[in-house]
């Protein structure tokens, strides 16, 4: 599904220096261990975080799998700049999910937490993730579910309404992109966590 960008990239560039301290990140931080656990007990050689922001999750990946090559992609250049200060050994690129500058089948584990709702073209991004995943690779997505109807006008007034989906729609989009849903569940912080592998 293609959605207009309501200023997400400009906004994230503007708040990059304080993003990690934002109260809205509390739920995401609580969910990080569950996202990593959902990756399974395999030892990935290459881990990609799509929508890596300031590199918070990748820093935890480095602790859990110290031998893994770390790659982060985010369309907000300032977020990537801050991530690079935390993760000097990682490969960090300014890129959206829809156009990942990586070889086909080159990534063992792809993670994405709370960025899916901001992707310009979610189906194209999922297809791109399917392309870069190794045939035995795994994709873990964590994202908020849609807000209640009463809250939507408030979010619009604040300038942004991310494109969130309920579990059946996420599963359907995975299938359309060539991904097989392995499991779905809820994580702390009110997030939907969906795990998929190449179909």
Give an overview of the whole structure:
With 199 residues, the protein is α/β, with parallel strands linked by helices. It has a single domain, classed as Rossmann fold (3-Layer(aba) Sandwich), CATH 3.40.50. A 7-stranded mixed β-sheet has the order 3-2-1-4-5-7-6, with helices on both faces. The chain is globular and about 45 Å long. It starts with 7 loop residues before the first helix and ends with a strand.
Question: How would you sum up this structure in a few lines?
Answer:
Pfam families: Methyltransf_11. 34% of the residues lie in helices and 26% in strands. By secondary structure, the chain is α/β, with parallel strands linked by helices.
Order of helices and strands: HHEHEHEEHEHHEE
The CATH topology corresponds to: Rossmann fold
The CATH superfamily is identified as: Vaccinia Virus protein VP39
Q: Tell me the β content.
A: 25-35%
Q: Return Rg in Å.
A: 16 Å
Unreliable spans: none
CATH top level is Alpha Beta
Largest sheet: 7 strands, mixed
The rounded distance between the terminal residues' Cα atoms is 20 Å
Domain module tally: 1
Structural class: alpha/beta
What is the 3D shape?
globular
Helix content: 25-40%
> On the 0-100 scale, what is the average pLDDT?
87
How does CATH name the architecture? 3-Layer(aba) Sandwich
Spatial order of the strands forming the largest sheet = 3-2-1-4-5-7-6
Number of helices: 7
Count every beta strand, where a strand is a DSSP E run of 2 or more residues: 7
Protein name: Methyltransferase domain-containing protein
Domain Methyltransferase type: 48-141
Keywords: Methyltransferase, Transferase
InterPro entries: Methyltransf_11 (IPR013216), SAM-dependent_MTases_sf (IPR029063)
